[in-house]
């Protein structure tokens, strides 16, 4: 793929050629590094990254595109019609979706809800299979999962009660604990493929992807960390493509002091704000990036109250940027009809 094939100003093309960078090499660099190497302005750098990413998608091998196209319309419902509307049906059947946010935002709550949603037949937004939940931080929230199971008849009013009562939800959520990177890689390379090959699961959840990559490396080990991060990401993508399985990765956040990065939504509270952890090395590996915020105030529903949340689409090839309000209730995460 040559730079002349891209719709870029000749000044930008000359700058990257002076650095002897290929189109794919550009996508491996962060925006600040690319700007420093090329001497381009911030806006030119963003144009360059956008054009390079578009070109790589356009020149993907045709057989791969055709095979993925058969599953492109299949979605996994998150269990709420309001949030499904934001996501145009739910999580894509193929690809890695990231859900990031601060502690208490409701990320794990939504992940648990999706673990139940996947067990429904396709006509109710599920994939008629179980889920594997890989926990790398705290112990698995068994009590909350049981509470969500008891609340399914309230949350999923679109599903016949007889079908809900016939599903053994807790028996189809497979829990894996990974205390270090070695056990995490072992899990995704051996145990998870076995569950997928047997048809027992059709959803992989990692909560959280940042925990081990942050704790197992010093700042000076960034090169080795990125190498292992890319290896882990490649394994997730392989599983998703091989078995047409959604992969949902929960991510932590880190403080940032600039809102100019296009991969970070603007914060209503000004600076400093937060950005998903692991930087662009990880951001380039996910197909859909979602963020969840816990806002100030209170919303009520019947005899329940909740701090309002907001689920935001940061980027996705098939979604427009936007967000919807939500609340966390006994039965699960529900979108709000009013704006928050």
Automatic annotation (TrEMBL):
Q: Name one GO cellular component term.
A: replication fork
Q: Which GO terms describe its biological process?
A: double-strand break repair via synthesis-dependent strand annealing; resolution of mitotic recombination intermediates; t-circle formation; telomere maintenance via recombination
Keyword Transferase present in the record's keywords: the answer is: no
What GO molecular functions are on record for this protein? ATP binding; ATP-dependent DNA damage sensor activity; four-way junction DNA binding
Q: Which residues form a coiled coil?
A: none
Please list the residue ranges annotated as the RecA family profile domain.
72-253
Main subcellular location of this protein, as a coarse class:
nucleus
Subcellular localization, as worded in the UniProt entry: Nucleus
Which InterPro entries does the record associate with it?
DNA_recomb/repair_RecA-like, HHH_XRCC3_RAD51B, P-loop_NTPase, Rad51_C, RecA_ATP-bd, XRCC3-like_C
Write out the entry's keywords from A to Z: ATP-binding, DNA damage, DNA recombination, DNA repair, DNA-binding, Nucleotide-binding, Nucleus
Leader sequence segment: none
**Assigned protein family:** Belongs to the RecA family. RAD51 subfamily.
| Name of this protein | RecA family profile 1 domain-containing protein
Organism of this sequence: Champsocephalus gunnari (Mackerel icefish)
Lineage runs:
Eukaryota, Metazoa, Chordata, Craniata, Vertebrata
């Amino acid at each position: 793929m040559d730079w002349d094939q891209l719709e870029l100003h000749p000044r930008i093309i000359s700058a990257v050629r002076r650095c002897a960078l290929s189109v794919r090499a550009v996508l491996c660099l962060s925006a600040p590094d690319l700007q420093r190497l090329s001497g381009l302005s911030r806006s030119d750098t963003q144009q360059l990254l956008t054009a390079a990413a578009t070109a790589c998608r356009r020149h993907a091998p045709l057989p791969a595109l055709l095979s993925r196209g058969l599953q492109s319309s299949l979605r996994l419902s998150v269990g709420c019609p309001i949030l499904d509307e934001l996501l145009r049906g739910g999580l894509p059947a193929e690809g890695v979706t990231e859900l990031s946010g601060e502690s208490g935002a409701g990320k794990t709550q939504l992940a648990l809800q999706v673990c139940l949603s996947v067990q429904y037949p396709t006509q109710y937004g599920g994939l008629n299979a179980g889920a594997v939940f890989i926990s790398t931080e705290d112990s698995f929230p068994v009590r909350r999962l049981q509470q969500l199971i008891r609340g399914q008849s309230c949350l999923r009013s679109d599903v016949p009660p007889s079908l809900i009562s016939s599903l053994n939800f807790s028996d189809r959520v497979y829990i894996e604990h990974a205390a270090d990177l070695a056990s995490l890689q072992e899990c995704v390379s051996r145990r998870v493929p076995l569950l997928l090959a047997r048809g027992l699961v059709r959803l992989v959840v990692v909560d959280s992807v940042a925990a081990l990559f942050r704790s197992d490396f010093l700042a000076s080990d960034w090169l080795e960390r990125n190498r292992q991060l890319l290896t882990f990401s490649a394994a997730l993508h392989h599983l998703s493509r091989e078995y047409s399985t959604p992969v949902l990765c929960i991510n932590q956040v880190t403080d940032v002091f600039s809102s100019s990065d296009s991969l970070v939504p603007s914060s209503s509270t000004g600076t400093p704000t937060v950005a998903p952890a692991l930087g662009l090395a990880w951001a380039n590996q996910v197909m859909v990036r979602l963020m969840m915020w816990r806002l100030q105030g209170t919303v009520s529903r019947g005899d329940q109250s909740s701090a309002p949340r907001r689920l935001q689409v940061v980027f996705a090839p098939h979604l427009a940027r936007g967000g919807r309000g939500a609340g966390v209730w006994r039965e699960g995460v529900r979108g709000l009809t009013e704006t928050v």
